[in-house]
Amino acid sequence: MSISILALVLGFISVQQVGGEVDDIETVKVKEGGFLNLHPGLHDLNGDVQILWTFESSRQTQSTRVAQMHQGKIYTHYDKRLTGRVQLARETGILTISDIRTNESGLYKAVIIVNKKVTVQKYEVEVYAPVTVPAISSADTVHTSTGTSQGPHARNSATHPQTNQIYPNQQDSVGSCAEAEVLVRLVLSGLVGIATVVFLVDHIRCCTARRGAQSSV
């Protein structure tokens, strides 16, 4: 069967039922920039197999060929917008489109002819844009986390980060006072010791002088 006849079969199937079966449409969602993988719906592709994948968006009135396998050969040159991004697996008939874009959302259809038996597989593909996360600076992160966990006091601390530099820590003040007190005590102890020695020396001199005076009399 030639390619033109296969296209004619595709147009006929779009408005008719094949083999008495209603064509179900599966919905597929994929993130923009990712890979779109569509299975033809058949697992046994032995024998004389022909596959035609087409695409139709909501803004198009006519379907566009995406890829085709005919007489064992693969064709993916139909749409220039998909150049280098379309692959059709010969063994499975799976259609893969890389770097998928939002404007490529729409109806994808596969017409498979295996030993003169026609099967149709349809997919409604929705390509959604990735969700962007707003950038948060490090300063905003500290302010938000501290204020949320500790209340207004923490927010005031985050707003005035220089408070600890202006007012010394209470523990540092206590340590400084203790050191000053020890130093004062040492100085006073030294002065008391010196005064005691002077008093004793003067007392000894007086006693010696009195004894000398009594001896001379």
From TrEMBL:
Keyword field: Membrane, Signal, Transmembrane, Transmembrane helix
Protein name, as recorded: Immunoglobulin subtype domain-containing protein
Keyword Transmembrane: yes
InterPro entries on file: Ig-like_dom_sf, Ig-like_fold
Region (Disordered): 140-170
Regions crossing the membrane: 182-201
Entry keyword Transmembrane: yes
Signal peptide location: 1-20
Species of the source: Phoxinus phoxinus
